[in-house]
Amino acid sequence: MMVDVFQGTRAYFPEVKSKIPFEGIESDSPLAFKFYDENKVIAGKTMKEHLRYSVCYWHTFCGAGADPFGPGTRQYPWDDSADPMVAAEHRMDAAFEFFTKLGVPYYCFHDRDLAPEGKSPVDSENRLMSLVARAKERQKETGVKLLWGTANLFSHPRYMNGASTNPDFNVVAHAASQVKSALDATIELGGENYVFWGGREGYASLLNTRTDIELDNMAKFLAAARDYGRANGFKGTFLIEPKPMEPMKHQYDFDAQTVTGFLRHHGLDKDFKLNIEANHATLASHTFAHELQMSADAGLLGSIDANRGNPQNGWDTDQFPTDIYDTTKAMMVVLGAGGFKTGGLNFDAKLRRESTDLEDMFIAHIGGMDAFARGLEVADYILNNTDYSARKAERYSTFMTEAGQAFRDGNMGLELLFEHAEGHGPVATTSGKQELLENLINQALIKA
Fold first, then answer.
1. 41-385: which CATH topology?
2. What does the alpha-carbon distance between residue 106 and residue 112 come to, in Å, rounded to a whole number?
3. What confidence tens digit (pLDDT) does each residue in 205-224 have?
4. Does the pTM exceed 0.70?
5. Which residues of this protein are catalytic (predicted)?
6. Which of 90, 110, 286, 365 is labelled catalytic?
């Protein structure tokens, strides 16, 4: 029998007695949802089914606020054992208590989040699978599921020059051993996706880099992981997460269009889709909505890392999303693409270093969940209760004519296009109505 709120032998969040409630916009409680009503039906599905929220293991339970200029500022009650495996067990119990009290249906992890590295690949795998067995029990008890798993192929010094793109074959093999174990863990836990985040898959200088070898090796590495996963029962989606820079000067997975081209070039686009992160879009000088739209246009929109960056800061700040204008435009793309299939909204976000109370973990996630819930409501209103879609379609109406459709079908060469231009006469100037549509979104934020 599943429990509403998991609590092991000890409560790590005693100040939160039960599952965070939905109280609506009139509530002043910081520990209540104002917009996220998981049972509210929008466009034929509940908010819970649309948004598929997931808590990330790494920032939430492993990150204590350290930055390049100083150590962590938070002391977690689950990090109370000198034995790293015992501490990992305590961390997992705290995590499932948090998941159930927050009321999210999913979580996700890196292999090293769950279990510390061992003395060898076999020892590391044994440690990981020991914690996987515990996670499987917790999933059964609570009903919380795994959205995706992945391997940390960037923190250890061996990966300073990359993992699958490393110039040392021995490092590539070690990376493959981690992916094999992390895939086994994901399969055992019923994970719906498996993610590759490049981390250090790029270069710092062309002077010492063979990009042709590294890119080809990256493709072969991904294909080997796909083949292993499929052969061992993984039926989910493989995801690539684009990122343009940091820590490498140039990442091979720079943005959505770069990754799309790479996947198609190497014949990987049938198994792989994209996991788009808002902050990475900022680093690539794109908007969040742009990266989502490019992925959707290619039929490769898989999942989302829900966070935001600081436009005044050129690095990966991973802040919790609070901009409803931004979440609205994101959800317009997601709804327009038919919604998530196996993906969801994972909060790859961390508390600010100055936020030191355990309560802040709940407050931050509540704010992010409310921001996307309201974005979902407004996006659905815009798409179904305004003339937004009709105006956008009208702008391209000439391609719906006989001649326009012939061009789109590839049946008009330059000679026929010349004849059409000659016979059509002067071209009228047509307004794009950008300001009107921007105002429409502002109005919908109030009316929806």
1. TIM Barrel (3.20.20)
2. 18
3. 999 999 999 999 999 999 99
4. yes
5. 110, 113
6. 110
